[in-house]
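Ticket #4471: structure export looks truncated?
Reporter: QA, pipeline team
Priority: medium

Steps to reproduce: submit the single chain below to the structure queue and open the exported record.
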Amino acid sequence: MSPETIMWVAFGLMVSVVLFIDLGLNRKSHVVSFREAAGWSLLWFTLALLFDLGIWLTMGSQKALEFLTGYLIEQSLSVDNLFVFIMIFTVFGVRGELQARVLKWGILGAIVLRLLFIFIGSALLKEFQWLFYIFGILLLYTAWKMAFGEDEEMEPDKNPLVRCARRMLPMTKKIRGDWFFTRRLGLWVSSPLFMVLLVVESSDVVFALDSIPAIFAITLDPFIVLTSNIFAIMGLRSLFFLLSNLMGMFAYLKFGISFILAFVGLKMILMMTGVHIPIALSLAVIVLTLAAAVVVSVLVRKPEDGELPESV
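Actual output as written to the record:
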C-alpha cells in the first residue's frame, strides 16, 4: 500500500473507534462536566498530534506541517463558532444535558457537509485558480467584519430552515425530554430541539464557507484538508463544554482569529502573484497570534457589563 493509503486506513480506524466510544456507547443525555470536557479535548488533540506524526513518518515533513497548520487554523476558527452555539442554546433555552445531544448529531451532520464542501472546493480551485482571489477577498472581508462589525442578534424565526420545518412539521410548544421526534395520537411530531439542531447545522454551513477556503491557502491536497478538518470538528463538542464557562476570559481572542483570517486571505491572494509564504512561517504566525491573543485577554480583562473599572 502507498503511504497515503496507509494513513487513510489509520485515519478511518482511529476516528471510527473514538466515535464509537464517544457517541455510540455514551448515549444517555447528561451534563458534560469541565473535567470530562478537558479529558476529551486532550484526547482529540493528542490523537491529532499522533496522526500528524504518522504523516511525518510515512509522507514526509512537508505534509506533516501542512496538516498541523491546517488543523490549528480549523481549531482556532472553530472557537468563533462556539460563540454562535452559546447564543443558539441561550435563545432556545436548551439545558446542558440536551446541548450535548444536539452537538453530537450536529457534528455528525457537519462531517457529511465538510466532505461535500471539501471535494467540490478542491476540484473547483484546481480547475479555476482565479477563485483564489475570490476566497482571499472573502476571508479579508470576514476578518474585518469579525474584528470591527457589530455582534448580530440571534433570530431563529429568520432562519429559512426553521421556517420551512415549522410549515411542514407538527411541533410541540416546549422541549420535553431529549427526543427530536415522537409519535402522538398516531402522528409523528417534532420537538423544538429539532429546530435547535437545524440552526446549529445551518450555522456550521456558514462557518464552513470561511474555514474551508482558509485551509485551501495551505494545501489543495484533499487528504490533508479533509483529515485536519475532521479532527478539528470531532474535538469541537468537548471544546465547547471546556470553554463555554471561560469565554469571558478571552475577550481579545476574536481579534487574534480575525488576524489569522486576514493573514490567510492575504496569503491566498499573494499565491496568485507568485509570492509563496512558507508553511513553517504560516504555522509560526498562527501559533504566536493565538498565544498573544490569549495572553492579552488574561492580562487586560475587560469589565463585565454593569461592572465599573477599578479607577472609577
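Status: closed, not a bug. The export was complete when the record was re-opened. Leaving a note from the reviewer for reference: The longest strand covers residues 181-184.
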